[in-house]
Write a structure and sequence with these properties.
The protein is mainly α and 267 residues long. 71% of the residues lie in helices and 0% in strands. The protein has twelve helices and no strands. Helix 5 crosses helix 8 and helix 7 packs antiparallel against helix 8. The radius of gyration is 19 Å and the shape is globular.
């Protein structure tokens, strides 16, 4: 059973993402950086305090790359700042930062339109994320940069920051490039755009939650896992990818055997 502390931390983590745009609305870019240094950082510090998984993942990465743990923490800080700045910049540039989440003219037809547009956003984000994720597993350079993230055998909240910068660019870059294009050329609804961006950011984080145990967590148990999607598991896609033998050989090529469950002996 999930403890009360874990539930409180989980809620705080998602609330920290939801509240991010408001830091810019009220205090500008200074507010974003202060918010990142305080609220966002607090969620990560609490993750290290309440979960042994976070510390183990950092130590494993530091040992694998022969760097001090401080270097891994610096990487996490850079990724946190980059992700928060990117999200706020997208909302500001496309005039969605100040949009009211509950507009006064919200009626049934508007709600249906919002639901349909969000569905389209999520479909495109699933396709673009999966395309980038497949490249990270099937190409030599992709496997090299994605290895760092997969050294997190058991994900937790802080795993969202344990990425090679190029890895983060690939996995964020697809959805966060196509969604603005859809907003400009197809949908043009600032409310739908804001909700879609924030929801995607929250879902990315939730996928690494050790409390929720979503399908992406099982992906971390083996580098050769066929769970390459972000929102769920699709058997037809897994059958399609299983036909590629290189997928099952990724772990060996990455230098740690591909059977990550063996880490239980050392932990």
């Amino acid at each position: 059973m999930i403890k009360i502390g874990a539930i409180a931390h989980e809620i705080l983590c998602y609330a920290s993402i939801f509240g991010l745009p408001y830091s810019f609305q009220y205090f500008g870019w200074t507010g974003v950086f202060v918010y990142t240094a305080t609220v966002s950082t607090a969620t990560v510090v609490l993750d290290f305090k309440r979960s042994s998984t976070a510390g183990e993942n950092v130590r494993r990465i530091a040992e694998a790359y022969k760097v001090p743990p401080l270097a891994v923490h610096c990487l996490m800080a850079c990724n946190m700042i980059s992700a928060n700045v990117l999200v706020v910049w997208l909302l500001r540039y496309f005039d969605a930062i100040d949009v009211a989440l509950l507009p006064p003219n919200l009626d049934c037809s508007t709600a249906v339109w919002l639901i349909c547009t969000l569905g389209l956003y999520f479909f495109v984000s699933e396709v673009t994320f999966t395309a980038g994720h497949v490249l990270l597993h099937r190409t030599a350079i992709g496997r090299r940069i994605h290895k760092l993230h997969h050294l997190c055998f058991r994900p937790s909240w802080s795993t969202n920051l344990l990425f090679h910068p190029l890895d983060l660019a690939v996995e964020f870059g697809g959805p966060f490039s196509f969604m603005p294009l859809m907003h400009v050329y197809m949908i043009g609804d600032p409310l739908a755009f804001r909700v879609a961006i924030i929801f995607l950011y929250i879902w990315y984080a939730a996928c690494h939650s050790e409390n929720l145990g979503l399908s992406h967590c099982s992906h971390h148990s083996s580098f050769g896992s066929l769970v390459l999607t972000i929102y769920g598991r699709y058997e037809w896609f897994e059958r399609l990818t299983s036909a590629n033998k290189k997928m099952s050989e990724v772990g060996r090529e990455s230098g740690y055997g591909g059977k990550l469950h063996t880490h239980s002996k050392e932990e």
